[in-house]
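**Reference record**
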Amino acid sequence: MRNSLLRLLSAVAAIVWTPSPPATAAAPAVPTLLVDKLEFGQMTNGAPVDLFVLKNGRGLIAKVMSYGAILVELHVPDRQGQPADVVLGFDNLERYLKGHPLFGATVGRYANRIANATFTRNGQIYQLARNNGKNHIHGGPLGFDKKLWRAAPFQTAQAVGVKFSLTSPDGENGFPGNLRVTVSYSLTTNNELRLDYEAATDKDTPVNLSNHSYFNLGGADSGDVLGHVLQIFADRYTPVDEALIPTGEIAPVKDTPLDFTSPTPIGARIAELPKTAGYDHNYVLNSGGKSLDLAARVYEPKSGRVMEVLTTKPGVQLYTANHLKNLAGKRGAVYGKHQGFCLETQYFPDSVNQPHFPSPFLQAGDLYKATTIFRFSTR
């Protein structure tokens, strides 16, 4: 009986002292990535224009449309978690079709200016469409910003997006070669808006694709951006003539109003640029466009929003909406001078005519690839 009692006590002790398995920590919530497709309106010929709503499950929402592959809205939370639309634009397609200052547009074939709307390649002179005085700008009067792109939404484990594609025929706006182009917008779970560009051609042609979004990190209807604190990772820039065509020189930004090598309010020295009424300058990035690297960082003190720009391109154009004036925008807002800023990642302006600038030429049979990321956080 004693042995039976001992066996019983041993069993009880085993039950009492057997440690419980460690509690399994709750797995972090997986963001719910979503993409919705809506009809935004119709072209004048009746062709439908689609609006794609991208959500990364962490507060970032982007709306992009097939006309112009345009970024229509971008909602970003502030330090309190309250979202605001941080890009300028319009509420409806009709207003975009009437003409606009390239709000959110995909720009091509060639972003920025080409002197005298001409260039020479393989011994042949090409005359481009003139739409900036005697010069060419942003792909011409019928650039990619005015095209209806094909669209295909996609989703991966870490991102949700839409790929836009089109073909620009040989001779369009004066450019050689049939150019096949794609631009993919994606929202990542790291609170990034990522733009991936690809292009291929059957004749040598310049390609310089960019996005022309006007940002205001306080919210698109919050007034001017002069209090935004900007840092550009570039020690040099390309000086320009009266028509904003590069002279060919590459000069230091030090001791000029263009020096944003340390964080500086956009409005701190803007009055020193009366000829351009603000910033409209190309910066030569320290990274040289050799890899995906940090180009700029912007901080808006009231909201706490921070935007970092990363790119594979060698340059970035800072433009401060110098010519906006009483323009009716989204949700009843009226946009005025300096109400937004653009950071257009690019090859340098007029690179086609400046052989010592990084070359924008895509050879037949080669593949053009470029990436720009807008990364958001708060502080």
About this structure: DSSP finds two helices and 29 strands in the chain. Residues 1-28 have pLDDT under 50 and may be disordered.
